[in-house]
Design goal:
The chain is an alpha+beta fold. It contains six helices and 21 strands. The two termini are 24 Å apart. The longest helix is centred in the middle third of the chain and has 17 residues. A hairpin with an 8-residue loop joins strand 11 and strand 12.
Length: 336
C-alpha cells in the first residue's frame, strides 16, 4: 500500500496493511513498515492505526480480510460465528478507509472508517452464488449450531435480519480478499469448500455501490475453484490473498479451522484439520464466468500452520503474517 512519494516521505520502502481478527473494525487496522535501505530481516515496525467508525463503533466483530484499490483499504468481516456458533450479525460487514486518512492517523488523531453492516445480506448473496456448486455437506452439528440456532435466534428476538438465513444454507467464513482489475472483489472462503475439498472464491461485484447507496445490496457473481488444491482426505480453504497486478494472484491455503479449540466444523469434519499451509499462485481468465482453475505451489510451510497473510513486493519477495501464540510474526521468503 501507499504510493512511492508517501513511502519516501516516511523513509520506508515497503508498507503492508493487515487486520487483527476478533477485533471491532475500528480497532483492527495495523501497518507493517520497513525502513528504506535496511536488510529485509531487520528494521521492521508494526503500528496500530486508530480509527473512528462513527455510528457503527462497537457494532462489528472479527475483521478477517483486507485489500486495497484506488487509494482505499477495504476490510471484510468473517460473516461467520464463534467456533460453537451461532452465526453472528456483528461479523457481517465491510468497511473502507482512505490511505490518506491512514497516513494522517499515524501522525495523531483517527482515520475515518466507513462501515456497511450487512446483517447477513452478504451471507445470503454468497449462498445463492454457491447454489450450483457441489459444496462439502454441512454436518448435523454444524447445521444445528450455525444454521438452526441462528434462525431460531432471529425469530425469537425479532431481529431485522430474520429470514435471511435459510435451512439449507452453509455458514460462510471469509478469510481472504483481493480485487480484480475491473473492481470486482474476490472473497476467499476458508469454509465452505467443495465436496472434493477444494477452496472457493466468490466475486462481490458492486463494492463501490455499497458505500455510495445505503439501499444497495451485495451482488455476488462468478465462483472460482482451485481444482488442484486440497482433497477429500484433507480439504483446504483460503487463508490469505494478494495480487501483484492483473489477474494473477498469490494465496495461502490451509485447514478449515484450528484443531484443539472445539471447532464445530471439525467436529463434523475432522479431516478439515489436516491440510498443511501452502503459498500457491494462480491466474483467472478474463473471458470466463467462473469455474475451475489450476495453481502452482510457491512455498510449503511444513509444521507452521497459522499463516494468515501474504504479500509479494516489487522485488518478488513474499512476506507472510503468522499468527503465533501471543503475538503476530512477519516472515519473508527472499526470491533468488
Amino acid at each position: 500500500m501507499f504510493e512511492p512519494d508517501v513511502l519516501a516521505r516516511h523513509g520506508w520502502d515497503r508498507a503492508f496493511i493487515t487486520v487483527l481478527d476478533e477485533a471491532v473494525a475500528e480497532d483492527a487496522l495495523a501497518i507493517l513498515v520497513h525502513a528504506a535501505g535496511e536488510p529485509l530481516d531487520e528494521a521492521w515496525e508494526a503500528m496500530r492505526v486508530p480509527a473512528d467508525a462513527g455510528a457503527s463503533a462497537g457494532k462489528t466483530e472479527d475483521a478477517e480480510a483486507c485489500a486495497s484499490r484506488n487509494g482505499f483499504v477495504y476490510v471484510v468481516g468473517s460473516q461467520f460465528g464463534k467456533k460453537a456458533g451461532p452465526l453472528n450479525a456483528k461479523r457481517s460487514w465491510i468497511a473502507r478507509v482512505s490511505e490518506a486518512s491512514i497516513e494522517s492517523a499515524l501522525a495523531g488523531g483517527r482515520a475515518d472508517l466507513e462501515v456497511v453492516r450487512f446483517r447477513f445480506v452478504l451471507h445470503r448473496a454468497i449462498n445463492d452464488a454457491l447454489a450450483d456448486v457441489g459444496v462439502l455437506a454441512l454436518g448435523p452439528l454444524g447445521r444445528q449450531a450455525y444454521v438452526e440456532a441462528t434462525i431460531a435466534k432471529g425469530a425469537r428476538d425479532a431481529k431485522r435480519w430474520a429470514g435471511r438465513i435459510q435451512p439449507t444454507d452453509h455458514p460462510i467464513n471469509i478469510e481472504a480478499a483481493e480485487f480484480r482489475p475491473d473492481g470486482r472483489l474476490l472473497l476467499g472462503l476458508r469454509y465452505p469448500v467443495t465436496a472434493d475439498g477444494h477452496p472457493i472464491l466468490v466475486e462481490l461485484e458492486n463494492v463501490d455501490e455499497l458505500f455510495a447507496d445505503p439501499n444497495a445490496v451485495p451482488r455476488c457473481g462468478n465462483v472460482w475453484v482451485l481444482g488442484d488444491v486440497g482433497s477429500v482426505e484433507a480439504p483446504a480453504g483460503f487463508r490469505a490473498l494478494d495480487t501483484t497486478g492483473g489477474d494473477s494472484f498469490d494465496a495461502v491455503i490451509g485447514d478449515l479451522d484450528a484443531s484443539g479449540k472445539s471447532a464445530t466444523v471439525l467436529a463434523d469434519h475432522p479431516e478439515g484439520a489436516l491440510a498443511a499451509s501452502e503459498h500457491v499462485r494462480f491466474e483467472l481468465p478474463q473471458d470466463s464466468n467462473g469455474g475451475v482453475v489450476g495453481s502452482k505451489v510457491v512455498h510449503h510451510f511444513g509444521d507452521i500452520r497459522r499463516v494468515e497473510g501474504v504479500s509479494v513486493d516489487h522485488e518478488g519477495h513474499a512476506h507472510y503474517v503468522i499468527d503465533e501464540e501471543g503475538h503476530v510474526a512477519l516472515r519473508t521468503l527472499v526470491s533468488d
